Amino acid sequence: MQSIIEIKHLFYRYEKDTVLEDINLSIPDGSFLAIVGPNGSGKSTLLKLILGLLKQQKGEIYLFNQELSKFKDWQKIGYVSQKANSFNTGFPATVFEVVSSGLTKKIGMFRFFKKEHSQKVMEALEAVGMEKFSRRNIGELSGGQQQRVFIARALVSEPKLLILDEPTVGVDAQNVNSFYQMLGDLNKKRGITLLLVTHDIGTISEKVTHVACLNKHMHFHGNTEEFERFRTEEISDFYGHDVHMLSHQHEHGGVTK
Question: What angle do CA 162, 60, 219 make, to 5 degrees?
Answer without folding.
Answer: 75
